[in-house]
Design goal:
With about 200 residues, the chain is α/β, with parallel strands linked by helices. Helices cover about 35% and strands about 15% of the residues. It has six helices and five strands. Strands 3-2-1-4-5 form a five-stranded mixed β-sheet, with helices on both faces. Strand 1 and strand 2 form a beta hairpin. Helix 1 packs across helix 4.
């Protein structure tokens, strides 16, 4: 299925998505993108359906071709303070605050969002595989978050965030079991399952 470049024909639309919501460590990132309607970006897709090489190539093209874009985050302490849903939406709102443009419709991946002033919004399940602006936002958020997790890898190399990016992989949870958690872990998350058998 090809991506749609607009939800409505006569409004300036901004696409929103996040990355890192299901991780055990690190921030949740969000991105907002207003695409140039006259430029089609070849290969644009949901970030989860792309290889790392494809994501980084498209990241540069999106930044070069988009009318506007913004990338923001909420760190793990904010996630613990307000919960992951609210932190994800807070990061999205920060993106909208940062965009130097008047937009008339907000397209959001998923099924939950909070009002942003009086601007109408549409929540779209699997929106990153349906609308180009959301797909572009998913790529920017994912690339930014992956780069951040790689940058802090050396501080706590035992968790191998350079590879797992903080997601609840076998390797990551095994390291938490052995070494405990650190300052980047989300204390409000269940870092380990109840049974050790669920890890090993």
């Amino acid at each position: 299925m090809s991506l749609r470049y607009s939800f409505s024909k006569n409004q300036i639309e901004v696409g929103l998505d996040e990355a890192g919501r299901g991780c055990l460590a690190g921030p949740v990132y969000a991105a907002a993108v207003i695409l140039n309607p006259d430029i089609e970006i070849e290969g644009l897709n949901d970030s989860k359906k792309l290889s790392e090489k494809e994501r980084y190539r498209l990241e540069e093209e999106i930044k070069d071709c988009a009318e506007y874009f913004a990338i923001e985050m909420c760190d793990n302490s904010e996630i613990d303070e307000m919960n992951i849903l609210k932190a994800s939406i807070r990061a999205m709102h920060r993106c909208l605050d940062s965009i130097n443009s008047k937009f008339q419709l907000i397209l959001v991946d998923g099924n939950q969002f909070y009002n942003y002033f009086d601007i109408p919004f549409k929540t779209i399940i699997k929106g990153d595989s349906k609308f180009a602006s959301i797909a572009a936002a998913s790529i920017l958020a994912k690339c930014a978050r992956d780069r951040y997790m790689e940058s802090i890898h050396s501080e706590f190399a035992v968790y191998n965030w350079r590879k797992n990016k903080g997601y609840p992989t076998f390797e990551h949870r095994k390291a938490i079991r052995e070494f405990g958690s650190c300052s980047y872990h989300r204390k409000s998350f269940k870092l380990l399952p109840d049974s050790q058998l669920d890890i090993f």
